[in-house]
Amino acid sequence: MSGSVDRELSPAPPLKLSLRGVRKSYVGRAGPVLAVDGIDLDVSEGEFVCLVGPSGCGKSTLLSLVAGLERPDGGAVLADGKPVVGPGRERTMMFQEHALFPWRTVEGNVRFGLELKEGLDRATRGEVAEHYLRLVGLEGFRRAWVHELSGGMRQRVALARALAPNPRVLLMDEPFAALDAMSRERLYEDLQRIFAARRTTVLFVTHNVREAACLGDRIVVMSARPGRVVGEVRVALPRPRDINRSDVVEHAREVTRLLSVPAGAAS
Amino acid sequence: MRRLAARAAFVGLALGAWQVASSLATSRVLLPPPADVLAWVGRAAADGTLAASALVTLRRLAVGYLLGLAVGLPLGVLCARWRLAEDTVGLAAVGVQSLPSVCWAPLAMLWFGANERAMLFIVLMGTVGSIVLATAHGIRSVPSIYARAARTMGSKGLHTWTSVIVPASMPAVVAGMKQAWAFAWRSLMAAEIYVVVAGHAGLGLLLHYGREFHAMDQVLGVILLIVTLGVAFDRLLFAPVEAALHRRWGTGRTP
């Protein structure tokens, strides 16, 4: 195995994220809608932070801002102290709909981000892609087309694709929301196994409080329209965690309690 | 195998119906039986008329169609990309497409004379509109999440276009190209019947002569040839591409 493969496969140092007074509105049918307002949030290097809130609280908007796909109307989004000015492969993203490319095979999808990296030859890209497909348990499906996979397998490919360019932050936008409970629970296990072996900063958006308690180091709770941070819950439980364990459920209950506090009364 | 048998049976049935119809017809001249038409095809093939005319027609078709693609594809991209282009070029494309291309024939004759340029002009006007519209539609229908996902992996600008937007729009664009191919045939046949270029008799002109000489076997023979060529090109040019797209997208099966 060549040196460049080893270098590619050793996890990149995680990024620190800081959001300072972030405000973002978009134009809806009935005029401008304030999606998020005055968001302050810090995510330290290698931390797994879950954003939880009712639908329409702007948590996906926050991810787009961190990804650099959109720009804030006010405030600042900082990655290692530097303002985010656009998307980049140090901050890859996973979406609720898998967003895999149907014209590429499973392996072709995982290769996509690698093809944009300079200095990687074909063989290296192949080995790196192979590594990540094995990591998500899909090494036997390299040549399959996306439509031939189940929903859970598609999200596994999406995870491999997002990890392959060796990002320093992984942004996950309700990646398991459309899956059945069984596929979801297997993915919780795999995700914990994968992140135990690499320290990558993760910002994970979900409306599933149990999922957040199972995966996160910290859960940030948001209120609805405009999205504001109303509280947070630290989850200091050992990993791997089982989503059905009573202490995980206990933390989830605390998040639910925070969610039910009216927005005005929280801060 | 079963599908092949079904097709053969269908063609056989159609020939049988034709045979019965011609035996019931008042005049053998107006509706000659299949055997007469096939005999004409055999004669025309033997003396080289058929191959020469088909070649003239296919050459015009290929040049006109490629010209249509060369003009239409970039304009379609432009329409998808810029509102201003959509409001101007796009509008013109809708207009041109709603106009039967034979309407350009009088103009083409006066502008270019009875020559190849007039032919190409008519074919171009018949195809370009549908290519522009299909391309623009195909690109606009690409889910924005593909480009977003690509951009988070470091893709931008031209790369996003060539490796995301273009491949993602292929199913719609190829469908448009296939439709444009059919339009090219229609336009060219109208042009060849209307515009006579001395010494270059295409299949359309053979149709025209067939009518002049009351040679219905010739008219039906040429029609048969056009249909055969149309099916052959569909199978050779488009079917493999469509099959490849269906395999990737998981489409094309009977629901």
Count of distinct structural domains of chain A: 1
Oligomer: heterodimer
Portion of residues in beta strands of chain B equals under 5%
Q: Tell me, rounded to a whole number, the average pLDDT of chain B.
A: 91
CATH homologous superfamily of chain B? MetI-like
Describe this structure in words.
- Chain A is α/β, with parallel strands linked by helices.
- Chain A has one domain (about 5-265): P-loop containing nucleotide triphosphate hydrolases (Rossmann fold).
- Helices cover about 35% and strands about 25% of the residues of chain A.
- Chain A has 9 helices and 10 strands.
- Chain A has helices at about 5-10, 60-65, 105-115, 120-135, 150-165, 180-195, 210-215, 245-260, 265, and strands at about 15-30, 30-45, 50, 75-80, 80-85, 90-95, 170-175, 200-205, 220, 230-235.
- In chain A, the strands form 2 sheets. Chain A has a 6-stranded mixed beta sheet with strand order 6-7-8-3-9-10, with helices on both faces. Chain A has a 4-stranded antiparallel beta sheet with strand order 2-1-4-5, covered by helices on one side.
- In chain A, strand 9 and strand 10 form a beta hairpin.
- In chain A, helix 4 (about 120-135) crosses helix 5.
- The longest helix of chain A has 17 residues, at about 180-195.
- Chain A starts with a helix and ends with a helix.
- The mean pLDDT of chain A is about 90.
- Helices cover about 80% and strands about 0% of the residues of chain B.
- With about 260 residues, chain B is mainly alpha-helical.
- Chain B has a single domain (about 35-250), classed as Orthogonal Bundle (MetI-like fold), CATH 1.10.3720.
- Classes of the chains: A alpha/beta (about 270), B mainly alpha (about 260).
